[in-house]
Design goal:
7 helices, 12 strands, five-stranded antiparallel β-sheet
């Protein structure tokens, strides 16, 4: 689908036992990502503590919004991650307990993707050709997006149960919301344990490609 000659993009996040942002379909993501601040995406393995996880995600959103939009995005994401870790430290009953949990915080600004993370959360870029690239954080990453590219951020419970072919086909052939729902369902069917969470950002597929994707990837 196209609007004004540009691909219409959307973002969707869904989880069971994990905390995600965005929390629902964002069909206006294309417009949001053209601003200086960009579209925020965050995924944390909350270890099943959904209320604490959602509170953390809200703190992440607020911290990112407080960073001036003209600040380098990787610096802004680092500041946001540091704020999230301070929140975890305050919430910990044991002051000496580890406060880092698997987490990725990312932003799309124009045609650039920026990400920073710790732990086992995985990031992938699915290209129009069907090629899938695992994005190494170490701990930060930056990538230029082509108009037809899609991005997937997911917990290890998802990535460990699905091969790259399943991931690429599912994301490429479906809208972000349908892709997230299918990925989580497939991981659960394959016996995934732990937090199931994923965010997909990418083009809103045509009805024809979505139908073909569902029929070939059941």
């Amino acid at each position: 689908m196209r609007s004004g000659g540009q691909p219409v993009r959307s973002a969707f996040g869904g989880a069971a036992g994990a905390a995600v942002y965005p929390l629902g379909p964002h069909p206006d993501a294309r417009a949001a990502s053209s601003t200086q601040r960009g579209l925020l995406m965050a995924l944390a393995d909350a270890g099943g503590a959904s209320l604490a996880g959602q509170s953390l995600i809200e703190q992440i959103r607020q911290a990112y919004e407080e960073v001036p939009p003209d600040v380098d995005r990787l610096i802004a994401l680092r500041a946001t991650l540091d704020k999230a870790n301070r929140v975890l430290k305050r919430q910990s009953k044991d002051a000496d307990a580890p406060t880092h949990i698997p987490m990725v915080i990312a932003a799309v600004v124009g045609n650039q993707w920026y990400g920073i993370g710790v732990g086992t959360i995985r990031c992938y870029c699915i290209q129009a050709s069907g090629r899938i690239d695992a994005i190494r954080m170490e701990p930060a990453a930056q990538r230029k997006l082509e108009p037809a590219d899609s991005l997937l951020i997911c917990t290890s419970s998802v990535s460990e149960k699905l091969d790259e072919y399943d991931i690429a086909l599912t994301v490429y052939s479906r809208n972000p919301q349908g892709a997230v729902q299918r990925l989580l369902a497939m991981a659960k069917e394959k016996g995934a344990q732990g937090a199931l969470g994923a965010i997909v950002f990418g083009p809103r597929r045509s009805l024809v490609s979505s139908i073909l994707g569902r029929s070939s990837n059941k």
